[in-house]
């Protein structure tokens, strides 16, 4: 039991990786989409300099 | 959910630190160029044509975006915008840090999904990959641009930007994962393809923004980006390994 649990913690199962990785990926893209690509003018104006500095297409 | 919690905190902490470092470099070398370029915004460039025309048989497209923010990009007067000075810097730093955390989450997620662990030792390679995928490759077709510079349709540029980032990322990951000739061949094709297709080109209009500002801006923006990625990669790797070790020893104690 102990060995099995340890092995599982170190060698993660595929479904664990898919769930955690998928969640983190979606969260990351939501942040990038909001900061770099959202068309709302208030978001655009607040993140304006960041968009230019990071080379995101702006305007 | 332990895995998610671990990569989430590793990404948030490393994104915060690397994002703040990037902000410092930006405020030093990049933001002043944006402010200076804005003084030229709205000015007609010498001998600018009165009406904007597309010379090269451009496909039918809408100019809604440009009409909403006409030549020289005038912000929508009704929409909120931060006051110049401390407020503007605050929102820029906030946006920098949030974008940095977003990049860190994507890096951590890809590492878990593809099964290529990110560690303190190989973090610099991940950072280099992130820099190539999200900055260098898109900049090869769409150089970082200052406000007031002529540019192609926004939607087309955004699409090309994402297509390039995804194709370049897929190409690099395939090479890193499989390390064989087939992967290198397919990766090379994926990395080259967006540039063979070509980025949407700006209309042939003179720009009111002086050339020396534009070149300094492109170089400074990419340099600030490099600083960010070379901190983010190793730091994310270090925290990821550290949290994984802490978790493993905790599990051992519980089950001992």
How is this fold's topology laid out?
The complex is a heterodimer of chains A (59) and B (256).
Chain A: H1 2-10, H2 14-36, H3 41-46, H4 48-54
Chain B: H1 2-38, H2 64-68, H3 86-114, H4 123-141, H5 154-178, H6 181-197, H7 211-255
Helix pairs in contact in B: 1-3, 1-7, 3-7, 4-5, 4-7, 5-6
Short description:
Chain A: This is Cobalt transporter. The complex is a heterodimer of chains A (59) and B (256). By secondary structure, chain A is an all-alpha fold.
* Overall morphology of chain A: elongated
Oligomerization = heterodimer
Q: What value does the average pLDDT of chain B take?
A: 88
Number of strands of chain B: 0
Low-confidence stretches of chain A: 1-9
Strand content of chain A: under 5%
The biggest beta sheet of chain A reads:
none
Shape descriptor of chain B reads globular
Distance between the termini of chain A: 58 Å
Q: What is the H/E order of chain B?
A: HHHHHHH
Share of helix of chain B, binned: 55-70%
Q: What is the CA-based Rg of chain B, rounded? A: 21 Å
Biggest sheet overview of chain B: none
What class would the helix/strand composition of chain B place it in?
Answer: mainly alpha
